[in-house]
Each structure stands twice: as C-alpha cells, then as structure tokens.
Amino acid sequence: xxxxxxxxxxxxxxxxxxxxxxxxxxxxxxxxxxxxxxxxxxxxxxxxxxxxxxxxxxxxxxxxxxxxxxxxxxxxxxxxxxxxxxxxxxxxxxxxxxxxxxxxxxxxxxxxxxxxxxxxxxxxxxxxxxxxxxxxxxxxxxxxxxxxxxxxxxxxxxxxxxxxxxxxxxxxxxxxxxxxxxxxxxxxxxxxxxxxxxxxxxxxxxxxxxxxxxxxxxxxxxxxxxxxxxxxxxxxxxxxxxxxxxxxxxxxxxxxxxxxxxxxxxxxxxxxxx
Length: 274
Prior knowledge:
- With 274 residues, this protein is an alpha+beta fold.
- The protein has one domain (2-268): 4-Layer Sandwich (Double-stranded beta-helix), CATH 3.60.130.10.
- It has 7 helices and 16 strands.
- It has helices at 25-38, 50-60, 128-133, 137-143, 155-158, 162-168, 210-223; strands at residues 2-5, 12-15, 40-43, 63-64, 78-83, 108-115, 123-127, 147-151, 178-182, 184-186, 193-195, 202-205, 230-233, 240-244, 248-252, 261-268.
- The longest helix is centred in the N-terminal third of the chain and has 14 residues, at 25-38.
- The chain is globular and about 50 Å long.
C-alpha cells in the first residue's frame, strides 16, 4: 500500500489496495492506522457492490442505519446520497460532523461514488484537531468543560434532507433529535483534543442564553473551516472516502446544478463524546 498525502492539514489517498477482495488482517491494521493519522482517506477505482462495500465497512467498525433515510433493499445500512438533475439543494450541503444530534454519534462515515457530474461536486474536509490547537490559550480555557446543544432541526441543514426524505424517508423517524456533547472532545483512540461544534447541528451552549452563546459559536464556526485547516477531494466514479467523524468536518460543494450525483454511504457506530 502506498500513501499519498493530498494536503498539509489532512487527507491521504491510499493506492495499491483492491477492496473487492478479502483484506488480510495486517492490511486492515495499516488502513486503520492511516485513517487515524490522516483523518480522511481516499481510494480510487473501487467498483464495489453493496455486499462488498459492507464487507469493507466491517473491517473498520460496525455499520448502523441512518436516522432519516431508508437504506437499499437487503442492505439497510447503505443509503443513497443523491442529487438529481432537477434538484437544487444537495444532501448535507453545509459544513458538519455527521449526526452529532445523536447520543452516540458515528465514529466515521464511508462514501462511495456511483455516478458523478462532469464537473463539480467535490467534498471539503476540515481538521478539528488543528481547529482546537490553533485557538488561544484563553479561548481554550473558556471552552474546555462547556457543553453544546446539538439538534437535527436547524433550518439550514434540515432543508438539505428534504428531497431525500420525500423520496426515501423513514416513516418511523422522529421529527427531531437532540443531544448534549462537550464543545471539545477527546478522541478515544488517539487521545488528542478536537473542537466538536458544527454550524449544521450545534444550536447553543448549556447554561448560556442565546445572546451569550451565539457570538462564541459564530466565531468557532468560522475558525474551524479556515482554508489552511482543510483539504478538497475531487470525485471520480468508484472513488471511496472514509473519514473520522470524531475529529473532522466535511462539506459537499453544491456546484453542479442540472447534473446527477449518486453516492452510497455507510455510517459506522461510535461512542458518546467525552
């Protein structure tokens, strides 16, 4: 396996790996180590059927169902993330960490490109270790110990689900989820601290009024996605991205109106942030 970094902040492409075949235990460990080091890893040319995609997912964690959208027939943990030619809003089209409104947010997510537009549709990723590390000591002392309120109902992100809920929504899904998580979490595997707020889901800070929390959160939302903290991935058909949801954010760029983009996604179970 050859590892090629794609940016200074995070992200690496892994070459020389065929995910359509069984992966030996030592290679599984190397892939896991690359994910922990680079936070998001990418593979090219992986034409995976849903069963093969699930087999690879099990080498990294435990696949779980997405709260709002039904999975594929026979593969409930594989959902379609798609934007069709006539649609204007893309799924999850805002900076976010996945489903932080759950009590146990996912440790990671996996996205496999099935159909891509002729241009556009890239995904941006941001390093939340660096977002924490580059704060002043005074700001760190203010944030450490504070608890954020995370909601699935923030307007800017809920509208990015509307098309998929209409076409593929779960009938029994609650209208909204709410969870409390620390603004700064400690990664359970690396022991590093990461900023754990995001503009899509973090709606307030426990114990503060909206007037008090808004300026703090607005600053953090801008700080954590500075260009020097990010990488950008240009999709091709059969490309695969795997990201560590505990220390990254991502943003799918919505710049391909009139074209179709279809991806398969698997979410991996995580633990309660501390």
